[in-house]
Amino acid sequence: MSDGTEKVLRGTCNRTRSPLQGSILVASSLEAGLYDAMVASRAVVCGAGGLTGHMQSICRGRGIPVLRVDESDLAGVTGEVTLHLESQSIIVESDTVSRAASPEAGEPSLDDLGSACAVIADLQDIATINACGPDAKRVDSFFIREEFLCLAAGLRPLDSMGGSPADITAYGQAVADRLCGFVEALLPEQRLVLRLLDLRSDHAARVTELAQVAVEPNPELGLHGARWLLGSNAYRDALHAVLGSLRERLGDEAGRVHLSVPFVNDAEEFATLSRHLELPADVPVSAFIETPAAVHATAAICASGASELFVGTKDLVQFYLAADRGNHLVAGSYQTRHPAVIDGMRRVVQSARATGTPVRVFALGADLGHYLEQLPPPDGYMMCTAELQQVILRS
After folding, report:
1. Does some domain include residue 1?
2. What pLDDT digit, counting tens, does each position of 173-205 carry?
3. Cα–Cα distance between 7 and 99 in angstroms, integer?
């Protein structure tokens, strides 16, 4: 479900929930509670999940390969094992030596990416990109989800939002603390884009101790993203605490942190949320286009004041094709190059460019070449850290 720089690797299985540096994490499925163990691992073997699940995306960003096996075979993955990513197989107690993957001719270069944006999970990802030499400065932005900040900092967002004003402020200051470290790691012309909290109920239940979390039959289509943000005054106050703390600590450098609204459907929803959040006029607020409704509302969302657009390809695919991106049973139907998906992405890019609004498209490394051929040029492409690093070094 996620590739790495090595096609064959060997290690000791870790079947606990505790981090064991350099091990191969073995779990029935990937979820937020495994974050520390996951990022410490060299590879992951799991029994469920999909290509573009959130935890799989973190692995892709870190270059950690993820291999899914049948649940019935998971018990046999123990001790010393060797993973063969190309053949998608596992050998127990093998002495196979790792070998590095060789680049393929004709792969996309950094010049093809426009204003490149790195999708990151933590501070280390910025260091990884900016250590790539002079070409690192061509990555002009880093994109991070607020929930990933929470995972790394041990924060419980819904518990904080349901607490006292002091709890809400403390949450905002904790997020700002993390962001300050990120800003300090940026090169002079780079910026950071924070995707506002988008915690689905099934994910929220795993990181919440005090607040009540609704049980939804279909969390992907439930109360999250812009819908949840619109109903939370506490989050508005927490976001004000974030911005206030950034201004106090960073001064003018706080302007390098931009905001992005997740899971928005149309211009009215975007405009209503902008008013609800009561943000200062000088704070750029962009929109994520990741539903078919948003595709058709692109021009109107731009006219409503969106500073920028990000095409959330992973969600866009699952909603266009009615195929859960986290369910391996429908992996054959989840097609990132489906003509309907390409048509939707093309419409977004054309509408945004017509209104003069910058637009960036997320691409898996395997799809980038196809998108370059099929789409009109956006302002830039977004890629996970490890895949973008390979493009930079190859260039």
Report:
1. no
2. 999 999 999 999 999 999 999 999 999 999 888
3. 7
